[in-house]
Amino acid sequence: MTGKIDGLTGRMRARMTEARLGNLDRDNVRLRGEVAELRSELDHERGEREELRDLLRARPKIVKVRGRRPLLRVVVISAGAYVLGARAGRERYDEILGWARSLRDRAQDRAGEAAGEMADQARSTAQDLKTTAAGMGQQVQDRAADVASQVQDRVRQGGDRVDLTSSELQTRG
User: Fold this and answer.
1) Considering only CA atoms, which of 32, 33, 26, 46 is closest in space to residue 168?
2) How far apart, in whole angstroms, are the C-alpha atoms of residue 122 and residue 33?
3) pTM of the model
4) How far apart are CA 5 and CA 156, in angstroms?
5) Cα angle: 152, vertex 12, 6; to 5 degrees
6) CA dihedral (46, 50, 51, 55) positive or negative
7) HSE value, Cβ hemisphere, 13 Å, CA-based, for 90
8) What distance separates the 2 farthest-apart alpha carbons in the chain?
9) Closest CA to 31 of 171, 158, 161, 152
10) For the chain, how are helix, strand and coil distributed in percent, rounded to 5?
11) CA atoms within a 13 Å half-sphere pointing along the CA-CB vector of 51
């Protein structure tokens, strides 16, 4: 009778061990999938971060557009300026010249302000993107470390049946 009980106990232990190993195998496969997914996300994040760095390092190219000035147009404008200058005298000429200079100065000031605002906005956006990318990269690394520790715990619990080594779980730094 004790022999039958010992036999049943041995078979029950064997079944429980097989069930545990089956569970560990399924967990191992699932965790390997998660590690692969996290690794691909991390690589994608690194690629995006490199693209962002390249964009920030690239300097804007200044393109100068030179328009052709038709000769007739230059002649007409010159003739008009000559007639106005001859009729108005020196005082009117100085007044028109002052008005043209103030118009030019205002346009330059507005262009400088707009360029400054655009540069500030670009710096702010770049800083926001950098902070977001760093945070996401840290989250991915933390999650990969958690998954690695879970797998190592399962390996310790399951014995030699699980083929995954800790070197396969190390994330690239």
Assistant:
1) 32
2) 38
3) 0.31
4) 30
5) 125
6) positive
7) 0
8) 134
9) 152
10) 85, 0, 15
11) 8
Q: Cβ(129)–Cβ(52) under 8 Å?
A: yes
Q: 41-58, pLDDT tens digit by residue?
A: 999 999 999 988 888 788
Q: Is the pLDDT of residue 65 over 70?
A: no
How far apart CA 141 and CA 145 sit, in angstroms, is: 6
Residues 6+ apart with CB under 8 A from 129: 52
Strands (DSSP E) along the chain, which ranges?
none
Could you give the CA distance from residue 56 to residue 123 in angstroms, rounded to a whole number?
A: 9
Angle separating helix axes 2-57 and 71-158, nearest 10 degrees: 160
User: Distances in Å between the alpha carbon of 3 and those of 8, 10, 12, 30?
Assistant: 9, 10, 14, 40
